[in-house]
Write a structure and sequence with these properties.
It is a single chain. This protein is an alpha/beta fold. It has a single domain, classed as Nucleotidyltransferase, domain 5. Helices cover about 25% and strands about 30% of the residues.
Length: about 260
């Protein structure tokens, strides 16, 4: 198994690489589906907070490690990308957001802001899976995305590229890094903070199935925007009142006994 650093793939930036300006890589079929699409995307499912604006074939992005400050940073970031492109919320076709799974608070913030902005202009929302966004950013064709869920667990899903879309092989789930769902066949690429946080994953169940691991990757609004454009073209947007995160965990903290 080869361990690949994110920097080895300059055309697919990791979440730590904050960008602003034009970006044509990995647009794929978006511009042909909706030539002048304008989508604002929000991603706050992890500690990294990012906002992207897709305008045709241009992507404007900003982001930073927010810790617990997503609610303070998100709207100023939205204003930054909109002002930079000379657009208003009313100019957008839809607002996409990382629907998770991920931080309970972070998911509520992104969903709530997306709903509020869309409602203000009678617009529509596009919930996009955060693990699918990781797969989109990875550069792979068979991808197992795994993010740190805290409390000794990970959020996990597997995807296989189907043309310019993704087929869900294993649905998003919450599991122990020592008891992951079985992957069908081999040739998988692993990515996400779950692999960084729990290196034993590659010593156990996925020792033979996962051939490469991309390190240092977190979900980013850039891929939420790209996937959102495809979702919009396929009619997968919803009214703002119907937008909702994808929770896969009910419990958000350990008891004192469990922490002992």
């Amino acid at each position: 198994m080869a361990k690949l650093e994110a920097g080895q793939y300059p055309d697919v930036a990791s979440a730590e690489a904050t960008t602003w300006g034009r970006r044509f890589a990995r647009i794929e079929a978006v511009s042909t589906a909706i030539p002048s699409v304008k989508i604002l995307a929000l991603e706050t499912s992890t500690d990294f907070c990012s906002v992207s604006l897709l305008v045709g074939e241009d992507i404007h992005s900003t982001g930073e490690n927010a810790g617990q400050k997503h609610s303070e940073l998100l709207l100023p970031m939205v204003d930054e990308v909109l002002r930079g492109a000379g657009l208003a919320v009313s100019d957008l076709d839809a607002i996409a957001f990382g629907a998770g799974p991920g931080s309970f608070t972070g998911l509520r913030i992104a969903c709530g802001v997306a709903q509020g902005l869309a409602f203000s202009v009678d617009g529509r929302c596009i919930p996009v899976g955060s693990l699918e966004a990781l797969a989109q950013a990875s550069g792979g064709s068979r991808v197992v995305a795994c993010t740190d869920a805290r409390m000794g667990q990970v959020y996990h899903a597997a995807f296989e590229r189907n043309g310019t879309d993704w087929r869900e092989v294993l649905s998003p789930s919450l599991c122990s890094p020592d008891d992951l769902p079985e992957l069908p066949g081999g040739g998988w690429l692993g990515c996400g903070s779950g692999f960084d946080r729990y290196p034993q994953i590659m010593d156990g169940a996925y020792r033979s199935e996962v051939e490469q691991v991309r390190t240092g990757m977190l979900p980013h609004a850039r891929e939420i925007a790209l996937l959102g454009a495809r979702y919009l073209a396929a009619g997968r947007s919803v009214p703002s009142a119907e937008a909702a995160p994808a929770y896969v965990r009910n419990k958000v903290a350990l008891t004192m006994k469990e922490q002992a």
